[in-house]
Amino acid sequence: MSASLIAVLDVDGTLVDSNYQHALAWYRALRSMGQTFPVWRLHRLIGMGGDQLVSAIGGEELEQRIGDEARKRQTEEVDKMIGEVAPLPGARDLLVALKERGHTVVLASSGKPHHVDAALDLLDARDVADAWTTSGDVERSKPAPDLLQVALTRVGAPQDARSVMVGDSTWDVEAAKKAGMPAVVVRSGGFGDDELTEAGAIALFDTPADLTAALDDTPLA
């Protein structure tokens, strides 16, 4: 397969098991500001960027009133739990398998730069990934396609380059659709198969290891 195929992989919830820490961090941050939302509702929004999450959970008025401070506190809460985050089964092996097939590998994260650094260290991925992104690279995060478009730019690829998104949430799938990429999804984001399929996912796998074992049956063959 030509190296012109670009594998664009989400990080949180796709390669490292951090979604539930992020949900709890949002719960703690918002509650510290007098806003208590059920954790399950916050979890349903993980994968959406923090720039959009506050208005999604509480409306535009809440965003205007506390959005910036809530994001600051959420980052601080994640920092406290970052040591609990672990790679998902087979995450690094997936990156290596993609590289061995000649694909370009880009990690498209909307996480804070120091959180992305921590994930790169956990995955020992700096010598495997061709490039990566952070929240500082875009003004609008997922489900907007901006992050995926920047990921292509990072490796000097045109926006219509052959590419495949690997994610874990409906927000990843929606962003991929807007960017013109097929989306392969792992279930570690906690979304239902029906939701992911209806959003446009073309294939579902339990873990990165399961995806690696089945690469020949995906567009990443």
Q: Main attributes?
A:
globular, alpha/beta, 221 residues, 6 strands, 2 domains, single chain, six-stranded parallel sheet, Rossmann fold
SSE arrangement:
Elements: E1 6-9, H1 19-31, H2 39-43, H3 50-58, H4 60-81, H5 91-100, E2 104-108, H6 113-123, E3 131-133, H7 146-154, E4 163-167, H8 170-179, E5 183-186, H9 193-199, E6 203-205, H10 208-213
Parallel strand pairs: 1-2, 1-4, 2-3, 4-5, 5-6
Helix pairs in contact: 1-4, 3-4
Provide the spatial order of strands within the biggest beta sheet: 3-2-1-4-5-6
Q: What is the CATH top level name of the largest domain?
A: Alpha Beta
Question: What proportion of the residues form beta strands (DSSP E)?
Answer: 5-15%
- How far apart are the termini? 7 Å
Biggest sheet layout: 6 strands, parallel
Structural domain tally: 2
Q: Give the % helix.
A: 40-55%
Treating each run of at least 4 consecutive H or I residues as one helix, how many helices? 10
Q: State Rg.
A: 16 Å
Within the CATH hierarchy, at the fold level, what is the topology of the largest domain? Rossmann fold
Shape: globular
What structural class is derived from the secondary structure elements? Answer: alpha/beta
**Overall pLDDT score:** 95
Low-confidence stretches: none
Number of strands: 6
CATH superfamily membership of the largest domain, which one? HAD superfamily/HAD-like
- The CATH architecture of the largest domain can be named as 3-Layer(aba) Sandwich
The arrangement of helices and strands along the chain is EHHHHHEHEHEHEHEH
